[in-house]
Amino acid sequence: MRELVTDAVRTLLPPRGDRHGPLPPLLLALTVVTGVVDAVSYLALGHVFVANMTGNVVFLGFALAGAEGLSALASVVAMTAFLAGALAGGRVAARFTAHRGRVLAIAVTAQTTLVAASVLVAAPLDGDRVDGPLRHTLIVLLGLAMGLQNAVVRRLGVPDLTTTVLTLTLTGLAADSTPGGGPAPRPGRRILSVLAMFLGALAGALLLRHAGLTATLGLILLLLAPTCAAAWRLACSDAAWTRPPS
Fold first, then answer.
1. Is the overall model pTM greater than 0.85, yes or no?
2. What pLDDT, in 10s, does the model give residues 21-62?
3. Domain range summary for the chain, segments of one domain joined by +
4. DSSP per residue over 3-31, as a string?
5. Cα–Cα distance list, 72 to 48, 65, 67, 75, 198 (Å)
6. What is the CATH number of domain 21-164+187-234?
7. How many secondary structure helices (H) and strands (E) does the chain include?
């Protein structure tokens, strides 16, 4: 338990000289964002994910088999937008690969812009569900944002903070424990990652239910804005953590 707490504290408040510097808490913030985004896409945009492509592949298979409540077109649109965002994120990461802080700052700025555009699209709408072309517009905007995030976070290379995929994180918590009952590496960070996603999804679902779509998208924007500001401040650093992981 002591190691778990120590690791969690080090993730939230990285010590001076940490190999990944201030990146872990910023990536935890993006994990919360992912939870809220998936709440919006699944609950308000018709049972589709814009961050979890495994889910979309499965949903596409279900939809083509004739399952009710699922749209093959929505899944395809989400995957296409995600891939386009990932392509853009990969190019940004390659262009600024020498400085991880700058890569993150540019990516989160683009994300914030895309989410702000989604707020403007959703603002005139009534209710918490969207149909027709506006639905696909929101899927595209959010899919681009999450594809960009995935590509850049992958390039940052901070262990156990993918910000979107928890299957390997949960597997690691169990599989990396020793037969004698010893703790898994970075247990606190892994648990924080799971909690961040859970809390984001919970907050997104509750806000969507009680305040509507625009307010929930506004929460995503509210989470991204300080993350973006912090990333730009850190982009000016020349500390060792800014260099790519070896």
1. yes
2. 999 999 999 999 999 999 999 999 989 999 989 999 999 999
3. 21-164+187-234
4. HHHHHHHHHHSPPTT-TTTTHHHHHHHHH
5. 9, 10, 10, 5, 27
6. 1.20.1250
7. 9, 0
